[in-house]
Amino acid sequence: MLKSLQSTTTLHNGVKMPWLGLGVFLVKDGEEVVSSVKAALEAGYRSIDTAAIYRNEEGVGRAIAESNVPREELFITTKLWNANHGYESTLAAFDESMKKLGLEYLDLYLIHWPLPSKGKYVETWKALEKLYKDGRVRAIGVSNFKVHHLQDIIENCEIKPMVNQVEYHPRFNQQELHDFCKNHGIQLEAWSPLMQGGLFDEPVLVEIANKYNKSTAQVIIRWDLQTGVVTIPKSTKPHRIAENADVFDFELSQEDMDKINSLNQEKRQFADPDEFNKE
Ligand code: NAD
């Protein structure tokens, strides 16, 4: 299952998604994102995670167009921004993202945040269902959805999300949400898997990293994979992009997995999806 950077998980509609990809949040459009995505593709990555709000879809598209990797080998994710919740506005925002990416189809489209204050995520999901049925996107999912948001979707829509991308790292492993997703065949995906660099000095992780002769980042990424969670660490530096993908030649023992699990404080480091309403 976890043999190489090209290893995939199978989503509930049969589509295969790489376990590991590159995240490009806060990577500048133009040269910075183009060179990061190219470095990732050269290192063997096939999955790239962007979003309309990252404002770098054009650069991601340029890097893809300039690479020699066949389109069908790639798995490209983008996300619908909060300002565009609603049926028609979602369809229009999707077209806009596709134009920027320069792609004929997308692999995964996510609702970026549930935005409960607006009360439109069910209507928005119906637009994603249309895009999926029309063959414009191979898989559809959500991001930052808690159990109660997912329940709303499941009760009121036709298609279950294939993916839920959420904050997930050793300080916040969302066990209840993870169990719910597993029970419904929804693949959990980790954002800020490295807690944006905030965990590199954590002594338990440093000790485990030394034991396997790996970096702390590699240990965390390996822990994601062994917990059955897709992960998309971000870096713009080619040597770190390669380092983050060099996690398929070792396996954490159950004892070490338990030690990492025990770091959980069930505490978010970033925004709470029930409160986040930035547009
Ligand atoms: P991350 O946890 O991946 O940490 C990235 C930071 O860690 C980088 O800035 C880099 O400085 C550092 N780093 C990376 N690899 C390293 C290494 N090997 N050694 C030392 N330092 C290293 O942070 P992130 O970017 O917030 O999250 C990853 C991706 O998740 C994003 O790029 C984005 O695609 C996605 N994301 C999604 C949401 C959402 O709401 N859906 C929110 C945040 C992030």
CATH superfamily: NADP-dependent oxidoreductase domain
Low-confidence stretches: none
Task: Walk across the major sheet and give the strand order.
Answer: 3-4-5-6-7-8-9-10
DSSP helix fraction: 25-40%
Instruction: Please compute the radius of gyration using only Cα atoms.
Output: 18 Å
User: Any idea what the CATH architecture is?
Assistant: Alpha-Beta Barrel
At the third CATH level, what is the topology name? TIM Barrel
Keywords:
279 residues, alpha/beta, TIM Barrel, eight-stranded parallel beta sheet, 10 strands, binds nicotinamide-adenine-dinucleotide
Question: What can be said about this structure in brief?
Answer:
This protein has 279 residues and is α/β, with parallel strands linked by helices. Helix content is 38%, strand content 15%.
Task: Give a description of the structure.
By secondary structure, the chain is α/β, with parallel strands linked by helices. It has a single domain (8-200, 229-238), classed as Alpha-Beta Barrel (TIM Barrel). The protein contains ten helices and ten strands. The strands form two sheets. Strands 3-4-5-6-7-8-9-10 form an eight-stranded parallel beta sheet. The chain has a two-stranded antiparallel ribbon with strand order 1-2. β7 (137-143), α5 (147-156) and β8 form a beta-alpha-beta unit. α1 packs parallel to α9 (238-245), α2 packs across α3 and α7 packs across α8 (216-226). The chain is globular, with a radius of gyration of 18 Å. The site of nicotinamide-adenine-dinucleotide has 24 residues, from α9.
